[in-house]
Design brief:
There is one protein chain. The protein folds into two domains: 2-18 and 367-500, no CATH class; 34-350, Prolyl oligopeptidase, N-terminal domain (Methylamine Dehydrogenase, Chain H), CATH 2.130.10.120. It has seven helices and 28 strands. It has helices spanning 2-16, 353-361, 368-404, 410-432, 439-460, 467-489, 491-500; strands at residues 34-39, 45-50, 53-60, 63-68, 77-81, 85-93, 96-104, 111-117, 120-127, 133-138, 141-150, 153-160, 164-171, 174-182, 188-199, 204-216, 225-230, 240-244, 247-253, 259-263, 268-271, 275-280, 283-288, 291-296, 305-309, 316-322, 325-333, 338-344. Helix 4 (410-432) packs parallel to helix 6 (467-489). The longest helix is centred in the last third of the chain and has 37 residues, at 368-404.
């Protein structure tokens, strides 16, 4: 029992000696993420404000569904029952919203693009070769932008409610990842990626894309503006237009995989690799791996923070802002299908001791005990393997030490030998590693060695054995415990990179 308490307090001391940057499961006023629903197909996910209530919209193989993002455990509604729902877009203006759906007839292969607004429906396009599309909602009704290939030329069209479509741009290159938005004065902006992929036997041999936008006047005509190279490698590589602070912002993934945020007509901010989500309450949100992150537009990159840590890698995400609160929805893969999640900042998370323990140990909080168990097993394995590597040296030193020390000094002598062995190991590791040692990391080494020495001495102090055996046991056990402790505490920074490399 005493040893158990000693080990617990020792781990706490090690924890205090090491600084961590692990994010919490939710932060910056957001509550704990919750599961909304599952989907059997790759869903599009939207956050939509419908008359003051924010819903997550997603598509499945048999239609369109929605569920409230304001509370957990609400009912799931099926809005459209149809096979062949290929795509959808939503646009908001206050509490009013419009919905664009793309439904494919499996018999003819033709796709029908339809807009629903104010309990009315209009057809935008019927085609056998659907392109990319985007939706916005203006004072006179929905506005749709879409691309279509006609006579080997890609063309961009603007369609307006009760007015029809008008071509605004054409190119010999592919036009993809369209977005459409109105600024605070209802001036229309259109963005897209323009370029091509040269295919090789496996993957792409060359990919050349640029990010472009149009600032459209009343005549829907203007010269495009290029913002530079872009990357276009999947459905996440989008252009995202976002009005805020009487300006228009455009986000896209650059050629070097970094995320760019440009204030149109102004400066461009370079961020980490990620995918844009949107702007709400003067914050720009994006996804990065399993995290949703944000920064304050008026302050820049120094305000970057992690707001959500999801259970799995986030594929696509969306947000909605209603009554001063931000609602997030996203989806990611699960064991058998896709899972849709939601989160909001109506109420801040109440952190549990499990959340704090997960942060301290840098373990994903959704599998805390599995993570602790696997990390403990691997740390013990690392301790055993490295201790066995020292065994021949310790055996030789125990033969020499048995002749030089008296009976009561054998066990401390073994511990001293272990300290010398660990010092040698750490010196070799320091000169062969490219990772710099930090002050907390250096401090944790003597703390771990001291704790291991105390544990071994308490266990062996009443052991009655010959000097050589006492020295050998003391050195091996001290090395094993200290390496296991260091591996456990520094697992993400020291051990995990080596394991993932095999």
């Amino acid at each position: 029992m005493k040893l158990g308490k000693l080990l617990i307090w020792g781990c706490l001391l090690l924890r205090l000696s090491v600084g961590f940057a692990q994010p919490y499961i939710a932060a910056e006023g957001f509550d704990r993420p919750f599961a909304v629903a599952s989907s059997q197909t790759t869903p599009d996910v939207l956050s939509v404000n419908d008359n003051g209530t924010v819903f997550a919209y997603w598509r499945d193989r048999d239609g369109l569904y929605r569920k409230s993002l304001e509370k957990k455990g609400g009912a799931t509604e099926q809005l459209i029952t149809v096979n062949g729902l290929r795509d959808m877009e939503a646009a908001q203006r206050g509490s009013d919203f419009a919905l664009l759906t793309v439904i494919q007839d499996r018999t003819t292969g033709k796709t029908v693009h339809k807009v629903r607004w104010n309990e009315q429906e209009q057809t935008v396009l019927e085609t056998l070769a659907p392109g990319h599309m985007a939706l916005s909602l203006g004072p006179a009704g929905p506005i749709v932008a879409y691309s279509q290939t006609i006579d080997a030329t890609d063309r961009l069209f603007i369609w307006r409610w009760n007015e029809g479509a008008k071509e605004v741009y054409q190119s010999d290159l592919s036009l993809e990842k369209i977005d459409l938005a109105l600024d605070d004065s209802d001036h229309l902006y259109l963005s897209w990626l323009e370029g091509s992929n040269d295919r090789a036997a496996v993957g792409f041999s060359q990919s050349n894309w640029t990010t472009n936008y149009l600032s459209l006047g009343e005549e829907d005509s203007a010269e495009p503006v290029s913002l530079g190279p872009a990357s276009n490698r999947g459905i996440q590589y989008v252009t995202r237009l976002m009005p805020a602070n009487s300006a228009m912002y455009l986000a896209w993934r650059s050629e070097d995989e970094g995320l760019n945020l440009a204030r149109l007509g102004g400066e461009t901010l370079r961020l980490e690799p990620g995918y844009p989500v949107g702007i709400a309450d003067n914050y720009f949100y994006w996804t990065s791996g399993a995290s949703i992150r944000r920064l304050e537009l008026s302050a820049g990159a120094e305000t970057l923070s992690n707001v959500i840590w999801a259970p799995t890698t986030i594929e696509l995400a969306d947000l909605s802002f209603s009554n001063g609160k931000t609602y997030l929805s996203w989806y990611g893969g699960s064991s058998s299908n896709y899972q849709i999640y939601g989160a909001n900042n109506v109420k801040a998370i109440s952190l549990s001791w499990q959340d704090r323990l997960a942060k301290a140990l840098q373990i994903i909080p959704y599998g805390l005990w599995q993570g602790i168990g696997s990390r403990l097993i691997l740390s013990l394995l690392v301790g055993i393997l490295l201790s066995l590597g020292f065994a021949p040296l310790y055996w030789v030193l125990s033969l020499l030490g048995a002749r030089l020390v008296k009976g009561g000094q054998a066990k401390p002598a073994g511990i001293v030998i272990a300290w010398l062995g660990m010092l040698t190991l750490l010196i070799v590791a320091y000169f062969r590693s490219s990772t710099p040692l930090t002050a907390p990391g250096v401090l944790s080494i003597p703390v771990a060695l001291g704790l291991a020495s105390l544990i071994v001495w308490l266990r062996l102090r009443h052991l009655d054995t010959e000097n050589q055996t006492a020295i050998l046991l003391g050195s091996l056990l001290t090395t094993f415990v200290s390496i296991a402790l260091l591996s456990l505490i520094h697992f993400p920074g020291w051990v995990e990179p080596y394991i993932s490399g095999f």
